[in-house]
């Protein structure tokens, strides 16, 4: 599995419309998705999958150079329902097809059913004409980050959660990750961000920005539960080495907020018994780590005027050769994730395929 900071051929997204996730019929969220797609498209081809009943609306709202394809889904989290792409120097591009149970199935999952989401990987494999390998385990793309050189980072809270793969040990999961992704070492962080409804996806807490370089969401408020979480992660990272024996350089990225759902924001969401409740005053798992690394840009969420500029400066230092584009992303956060969660990179296939 190539690193996200390696070259891409495309970025895949889905179109939001689910009214029990996205407020006001998803209209504010759709604008945010348009902004993200437009920003990423400065760097690479963007393909947006849309349910049939929203095809014309999406085609009208998205710029002409962004591809819009009919690709049915239950919701719009392409990072988690889309494929994990892998490459081979002789055989080119392929994808891993993990099982998906909406972040916990009937034991804490965020909605039901998820039947359309489970077919997305098969459909994309058909569209691209690439091999698809069924992994046989539940895993979402946001639960892992790799350096492209044999190292994977994840959280125990998510990958070892009994609502994903009951009874699976760290050793069992490491064996599967090695076989499917070609990695040699897993760095296990204890848990993800506070109240992250994905059960602790690593892409909201920590990510690789270069070989042996990681960014970590950071909180200096000792009264905030996130304070302990990020220090637990830092302790692991500072003691860890990657698959090539290098010690990790950890860059701290300030945490926004804390941010909470407003009364007006909550009132615009449909209430269904089969979906995750979003109540006024609920804290959201806000993080600047949830950015997308494109070929020539980094698209980051703007979440908190008190911290946006500082976060942008840190990200610019981490990616001096890329242009940093900030997108107002509160509407995406209200749905439970952010920019990294709604995007999935398609790596550039090797040139010497034969």
Automatic annotation (TrEMBL):
Tagged with keyword Hydrolase: yes
Pfam families given in the database record: PAD_porph
EC number: 3.5.3.12
Keyword Hydrolase: yes
Source taxon at top rank: Bacteria
Catalytic activity: agmatine + H2O = N-carbamoylputrescine + NH4(+)
Active site (catalytic residues): 341 (amidino-cysteine intermediate)
Family recorded in the similarity comment: Belongs to the agmatine deiminase family.
Protein name stated in the entry: Putative agmatine deiminase
Originating species: Halomonas cupida
Lineage: Bacteria, Pseudomonadati, Pseudomonadota, Gammaproteobacteria, Oceanospirillales
């Amino acid at each position: 599995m190539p690193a996200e900071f390696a070259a891409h051929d495309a970025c895949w997204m889905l179109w939001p419309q689910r009214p029990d996730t996205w407020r006001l019929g998803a209209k504010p969220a759709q604008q945010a998705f348009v902004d993200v797609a437009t920003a990423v498209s400065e760097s690479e081809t963007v393909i947006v999958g849309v349910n049939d009943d929203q095809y014309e609306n999406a085609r009208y709202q998205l710029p002409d150079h962004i591809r819009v394809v009919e690709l049915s889904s239950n919701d719009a989290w392409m990072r988690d329902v889309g494929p994990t792409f892998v490459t081979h120097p002789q055989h080119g591009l392929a994808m891993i097809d993990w099982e998906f149970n909406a972040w916990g199935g009937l034991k804490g999952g965020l909605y039901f059913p998820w039947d359309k989401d489970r077919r997305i990987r098969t459909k994309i494999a058909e569209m691209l004409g690439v091999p698809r390998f069924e992994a046989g385990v539940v895993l979402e793309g946001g639960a892992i980050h790799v350096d492209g050189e044999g190292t994977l980072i994840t959280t125990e809270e998510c990958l070892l959660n009994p609502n994903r793969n009951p009874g699976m040990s760290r050793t069992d999961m490491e064996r599967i990750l090695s076989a499917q992704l070609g990695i040699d070492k897993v760095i296990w962080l204890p848990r993800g961000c506070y109240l992250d409804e994905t059960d602790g996806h690593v892409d909201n807490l920590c990510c690789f920005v270069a070989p042996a370089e990681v960014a970590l969401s950071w909180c200096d408020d000792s009264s905030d539960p996130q304070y302990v979480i990020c220090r637990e992660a830092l302790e692991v990272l500072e003691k860890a080495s990657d698959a090539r024996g290098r010690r990790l350089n950890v860059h701290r990225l300030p945490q926004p907020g804390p941010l909470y759902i407003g009364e007006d924001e909550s009132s615009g969401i449909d209430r269904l018994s089969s979906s995750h409740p979003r109540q006024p005053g609920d804290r959201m798992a806000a993080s600047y780590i949830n950015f997308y690394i494109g070929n020539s840009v980094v698209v980051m969420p703007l979440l908190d005027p008190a911290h946006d500029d500082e976060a942008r400066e840190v990200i610019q230092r981490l990616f001096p050769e890329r242009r940093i584009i900030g997108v107002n992303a509160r509407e995406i956060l209200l749905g439970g994730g952010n920019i990294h969660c709604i995007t999935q990179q398609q790596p550039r296939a090797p040139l010497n395929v034969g």
